[in-house]
């Protein structure tokens, strides 16, 4: 068994390889070629432990995630955890992977897969709302997997935006970064917009003219009472694309529009189904589009399998003797 650090995970596979692995996982989801028990959530006082198991043909894995909301006071990230990858035939542990790095990378890859297939090819400008860890990964993976020349970043706290720009400039020096003074400025200059916040109210203005013709990726709202998108956006959408059917019960960005009749159930489609059906991808590229992700353990297993195999080939990781 090997242990893979954040550095190992980021060195093991290329962004295109990770994106392809996520696309494969979306197809496995539609084909029901997996077994994914409901994740176990254990709350103790203010803290939460999540156990997320999933089985596919060649391997299975379990991600253990802790959420300790008071950690920032101790200068420790809120989210910590680890991924255990096992051989499907013997159950023998193959690898331990840094949980936060794996989660951030695969979540960013999920969003970028939607950009790969739904955003017009001419897009050159990306907008990021939320300058936290996920905002960094979303910007990095989207730029590495696409043709963006400019990135506009907005956060309620300008200091966070400056730190994110500095980190991204080192990772992708050929891209120009701009600190947007407001969300409206970001929308006016971006064709693709990724929201990565923990907001309970929409972070975009309720104005159709500012929203029309763009591709939106929603990462932040993972609870029924959390929302990032306004009513006006749903007036512009033919369909809403989701990563997993659980999004309909988990995210306020789906729950609230359905409840208020801004969105009909038949308008909702998984991105995997869209890809498998081989519909004309060009049909959506001129439209206003929305992809909402809440994540699932299947993404973790498929990404971990790829990263483990590539790490073995490259001699990465630290061997652990059980």
In short:
By secondary structure, the protein is α/β, with parallel strands linked by helices. Helices cover about 40% and strands about 25% of the residues.
Low-confidence stretches: none
Placed side by side, the strands forming the largest sheet appear as 9-8-7-10-11-14-12-13
Strand content: 15-25%
What would the CATH topology of the largest domain be? Answer: Rossmann fold
Shape: globular
User: Compute the gyration radius: what is it?
Assistant: 19 Å
The CATH class of the largest domain turns out to be Alpha Beta
Mean pLDDT: 92
Number of domains: 2
Structural class: alpha/beta
Determine the CATH superfamily of the largest domain.
Answer: NAD(P)-binding Rossmann-like Domain
Largest sheet: 8 strands, parallel
Helix content: 25-40%
Count the strands? 15
Order of helices and strands: EHHEEEEEHEHEHEHEHEHEHHEHEHE
Give the second-level CATH assignment, the architecture of the largest domain: 3-Layer(aba) Sandwich
Measured between the Cα atoms of the first and last residue, the distance is: 8 Å
**Number of helical regions:** 12
């Amino acid at each position: 068994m090997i242990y893979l650090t954040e550095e190992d995970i980021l060195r093991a596979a290329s962004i295109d390889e990770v994106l392809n692995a996520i696309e494969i996982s979306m197809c496995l989801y539609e084909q029901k070629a997996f077994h994914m028990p409901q994740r176990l959530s254990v709350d103790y006082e203010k803290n939460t432990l999540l156990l997320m198991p999933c089985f596919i043909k060649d391997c299975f894995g379990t991600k253990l995630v802790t959420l300790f909301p008071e950690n920032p006071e101790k200068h420790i990230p809120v989210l910590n955890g680890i991924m255990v990858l096992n051989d499907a035939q013997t159950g023998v542990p193959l690898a331990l992977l840094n949980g936060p790095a794996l989660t951030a990378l695969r979540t960013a890859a999920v969003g970028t897969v939607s950009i790969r297939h739904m955003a017009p090819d001419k897009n050159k400008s990306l907008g990021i709302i939320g300058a936290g860890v996920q905002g960094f990964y979303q910007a990095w993976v989207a730029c590495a997997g696409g043709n963006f020349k400019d990135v506009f970043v907005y956060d309620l706290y300008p200091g966070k935006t400056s730190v994110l720009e500095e980190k991204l400039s080192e990772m992708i020096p050929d891209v120009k970064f701009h600190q947007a003074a407001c969300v409206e400025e970001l929308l006016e200059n971006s064709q693709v917009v990724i929201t990565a916040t923990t907001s309970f109210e929409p972070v975009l203005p309720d104005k159709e003219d500012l929203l029309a013709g763009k591709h939106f990726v929603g990462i932040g709202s993972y609870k029924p009472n959390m929302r990032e998108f306004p009513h006006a956006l749903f007036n512009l959408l033919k369909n809403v694309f989701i990563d997993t059917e659980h999004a309909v019960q988990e995210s306020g960005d789906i729950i609230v529009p359905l409840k208020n009749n801004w969105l009909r159930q038949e308008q909702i489609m998984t991105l995997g189904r869209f890809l498998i059906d081989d519909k004309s991808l060009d049909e959506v590229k001129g439209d206003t589009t929305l992809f909402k992700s809440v994540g699932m353990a299947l993404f973790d297993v498929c990404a971990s399998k790829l990263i483990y195999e590539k790490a073995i080939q490259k001699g990465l990781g630290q061997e652990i003797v059980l």
